[in-house]
Write a structure and sequence with these properties.
eight-stranded mixed sheet; alpha/beta; elongated; 14% strand
Length: 281
């Protein structure tokens, strides 16, 4: 299963992922739909949950400790959570490097000796070290060259099939999400505004913000590209620290009514599996 979270930069996608894994505290549940719970855990329960859920971070340059070797980086979660002997750890690290397409003899090298794509593979190997069931991929290809992005996505899909993983992809690349996601959640200013299967969301978007996002995705057919209408949003994104009253999207919505500026829209299901928060739907 590959659910995805999409939206503009700064809309809260990465923050939502970190809240789900409780890397940061959830200070406000008002913007989270009732059926989505971050499941707060006590210290011991949270420690045990780390065995089942991990994260692949956006920038492999910043997420890997430059003072640690590749072998130490990948084996760190194993040392913390598993009672393995040194030989078992070394064999597991080498196997993980092989599984992400890297030479197992690289264990004594440092992150700065690798390219961006190779560093991201090291980050993926670290996330797999504890055999988790659920991995949050926080824009795992955003910092990589276009030529490498497809290789990393193909690797993640192969690993999912091999290990039976569930991914939550966080991305602003709508064309990529269309091909890899089962379900898509669209976020704006810290709130999920629409949630549906990938097929339904791309064919019948209901929220004005979703429609504007999809209208900005280039089409492969030049004739259709020239004919289609785009939704151009005016104004700047408000500050997340001081969002507008009512619907957060009201200040930029081309269809906003008086109630949109006063009342926050309810999160509701408009068809099976298709949920939206908008007064106009």
């Amino acid at each position: 299963m590959k659910p995805c979270s999409v939206g503009e930069s700064g809309c809260g996608k990465s923050t939502a992922g970190r809240v789900i894994l409780q890397l940061i505290p959830d200070s406000d549940q008002d913007g989270v739909p009732d059926d989505i719970d971050s499941c707060p855990l006590e210290r011991n329960g949270l420690r045990n949950s780390r065995l089942d859920m991990q994260m692949i971070f956006q920038d492999p340059q910043d997420s890997l400790n430059p003072r640690m070797t590749v072998g130490s980086i990948i084996s760190e979660p194993i040392l913390e959570h598993k009672n393995f002997q040194a030989k078992e750890r070394r064999e597991l690290v080498e196997q993980l490097l092989i599984s992400v397409g890297m030479n197992p003899r690289f264990t004594n090298r440092y992150p700065h000796e690798f390219s961006g794509g190779q560093r991201q593979r090291i980050g993926i190997a670290r996330a797999l070290a504890l055999s988790p069931d659920f991995i949050i991929c926080d824009e795992p290809i955003a910092a990589l060259d276009v030529s490498i992005q497809a290789q990393v996505i193909n690797l993640l899909e192969d690993l999912q099939e091999k290990y039976g993983l569930t991914y939550l992809f966080i991305s602003h690349d709508l064309s990529m999400i269309r091909h890899i996601a089962n379900r898509v959640a669209v976020m704006y200013l810290g709130r999920i505004v629409e949630l549906a299967s990938s097929q339904v969301l791309y064919s019948t978007p209901l929220h004005p913000y979703t429609q504007a996002l999809l209208s900005a995705v280039p089409m492969h057919d030049p004739k259709m590209e020239r004919k289609r209408k785009r939704t151009i949003l005016v104004g700047d994104v408000p500050s997340p620290a001081d969002p507008p009253s009512g619907c957060h999207f009201s200040t930029r919505c081309p269809r906003a009514e008086d109630r949109c500026f006063k009342d926050s829209p309810e999160w509701r299901e408009v068809s099976q599996g298709h949920q939206v928060a908008c007064h106009l739907v």
